[in-house]
Model the fold of this input.
Amino acid sequence: METKNESRLICVEQKGDERGLLSVIEENKIVPFEIKRVFYIYKTLPDIRRGYHAHYKTRQALICVAGNCKILLDNAVSKRTVLLDSPDKMLILEPNDWHEMYDFSPNCVLLVLASHLYDAEDYIRDYEKFKEVYGG
Ligand code: TYD
Done:
């Protein structure tokens, strides 16, 4: 069985002044890995649920930089739901976190920082396979 780690929600510092707010994310600091890839999910249609996978290697940091959405997390032992509704909330996902993203607000922009380049072979898209790899 693969090693398991816990997902966690981190508060990103807001640097505020009379002009507004600014938040900073640097690799190996608040994000606990080197950032190899950045992508963002936006203009998601109503009632769409996406994700439905875990990984073998890739770690990710999710931030809703606009709007809000929910993330269902399943680490093969327990499930929980996280609401991302502010740009100062960052969810660290471990490879063993099966995740589903849903309830996207129309203005939602979900920014994802990833530890590895895109590799379709790093995805576990079959739930039974996920339980085989990380369950028990
Ligand atoms: P997909 O994995 O289906 O998104 P989600 O997990 O959010 O449901 O990705 C949609 C498409 O984008 C799919 O064809 C794969 C492609 N893609 C890349 O080419 N590079 C990437 O880094 C990501 C995340 C997806």
Remarks:
- The two ends are 8 Å apart (CA to CA).
